[in-house]
Amino acid sequence: MEKKKGKSFILLFIFIIINCMNISMLSILRVTKEAELEIKKNTQAKITLEVKENDNLITKTELEKILAVGNIIDVNRVCKDYAIPHNFKNYKGKIEDDIRDNMVTLYGYDDLSQDSRFSELEMKITSGETVKPMSQDSVVINHNLAELNSLQIGDIIEFSKNDRTISGKICGIYKSSIEDKQRENITSFFRIENMVFLSQTLMEQLVNEGNYNKVVLYVQDPEKLEDTVDKVKSLLGEKIEVSTTDTMYEKLKMNLDQIEKITNVILILVVIISVIVITLIYGIWIRDRKKEIAILLSLGKSKVSVFLQICLESFMLFGCSVILAVLVGNIITTWIERALLTWQDSRIGLNINLNVYDIVKVIAIGSLVLIISISLSLVRIIMAKPREVLAEMEG
User: Fold this and answer.
1) What is the pLDDT of residue 14?
2) Alpha-carbon distance 211 to 51, whole Å?
3) Which residues are CB-contacts of 82 (< 8 A; sequence separation ≥ 6)?
4) Mean pLDDT per 10-residue run, the chain (395 residues)?
5) Residue 128 in contact with residue 170, Cβ under 8 Å?
């Protein structure tokens, strides 16, 4: 009796180890899938369309067709034009006999914090804020231009072009890291100080058109990036240069794929080793129960009944092991999470916690392993005739 209890305890201990391993591996696999979906949303894979010639811009109609191809979740429209300041003066450089000496260069953005010199850190806001999506009359000017005209946040400035005048409110003042590196004899028209950034709404009021020098498309699924590019190219032809940015997604996905591959290998090895070890243990256990099985068969019990009885005993032990494995599972998954975050890119948020679906999968895998192991250990009894089994066990 003590011997039987000892073997049951060993089997229970092995079940706990196997279930803990399976819980950990399945939790990791689930979380990597969730993380992959998350990085698709957050890595901002994008397609940048820039016109080759300034007299052949992307029209509003063409943009509407582009947005209709699908897989596009956001857009940042960029246009460039020139205007004459009304209630302020531009920053003078080299004076030439040209009307452009009195102009400023206007850049219209949906979101100035993205796809601009600000996102590239060449320029930075020193006061106020950038032009944001849905801004109506926002304007961002250079700090030297603001100082020259005694302008500050909240002031209204006006521009005109082709007998059309617009006004906007200064929401931000910027400084460029390369403005001090400009040549002294550079024409006023090209000076950084005369670069004015404004909302797309204001820009369209000035030129009364929806034409764009550059359009940045943010895609929903980075894996369909090339397909989306092909569709866009078919609409715009050779008038644009196309570039894509999905480096961050590819890097993070590669890290997740490595985790997934390693985890799958470990899970498969755990299942294979489980079948081998449990089969060997059951082989020893059933050999020690020859007399008991012989008595059951002699009393008229069928081999199926013997198989089901052993399964019942085994599943009672297995059920206890699942409960104990779940209790210690959080500790194991926390340790694995820390190890993976140390090894992999820290931007991947792997929150490995227990999930009811993982536990159901563990029960399913464990049950299959158990049935296979019991069947393999009883294969000689199942295949043999009852009289042969009794004769062998009595002998």
Assistant:
1) 87
2) 11
3) 100, 103, 104, 105, 106, 161, 189
4) 64 86 83 74 80 87 90 90 89 68 89 89 92 89 94 93 89 91 78 92 81 90 86 88 77 78 89 90 76 69 78 87 82 68 53 76 90 83 61 56
5) yes
* Packed helices 247-288 and 2-42: angle between N→C axes, nearest 10 degrees: 170
Q: Which of 267, 347, 225 is nearest to 21 (CA)?
A: 267
Q: How far apart are CA 234 and CA 171, in angstroms?
A: 39
Residues whose CB falls within 8 Å of the CB of residue 346, separated by 6 or more in sequence, listed in order: none
The whole-angstrom separation of Cα 128 and Cα 125 is 7
Burial of 138-161, coded b for 16+ CB within 10 Å and e otherwise, reads bbbbbbbbbeebebeeebebebeb
| Of the candidates 277, 361, 376, the residue with the CA atom closest to the CA atom of residue 326 | 361
Q: How far apart are CA 63 and CA 319, in angstroms?
A: 60
Measured distance CA(141)–CA(196) in Å, rounded = 5
Instruction: Answer whether 140's CB lies under 8 Å from 108's CB.
Output: no
pLDDT given for residue 4 in this prediction: 59
Residue-level pLDDT at 2:
46
pLDDT of residue 194: 92
Count of other CB atoms within 10 angstroms of residue 15: 24
Are 1 and 307 a contacting pair, CB within 8 Å? no
Beta strands 138-142; 72-85: pairing state: unpaired
Q: Cα separation of 29 and 358, whole Å?
A: 10
Q: What is the pTM of this model?
A: 0.64
* Cα angle: 228, vertex 231, 237; to 5 degrees: 130
User: For residue 250, what are the contacts with CB-CB under 8 A and spacing of at least 6?
Assistant: 222
SS3 213: coil
pLDDT for 125 equals 94
Distance CA 392, CA 395 (A): 5
Contact 144, 137 (CB under 8 A): no
* The total number of residues written for the chain in this structure: 395
Query: Tokens at residue 286, please?
Result: 């059933």
Instruction: Tell me which amino acid residue 140 is.
Output: V
pLDDT at position 75 is 92
| SS3 state at 310 | helix
pLDDT of the residue at 197: 95
At 109 the pLDDT is: 93
User: d(Cα 176, Cα 88) in Å, to the nearest integer?
Assistant: 21
Which tokens is 54 given?
A: 């300034």
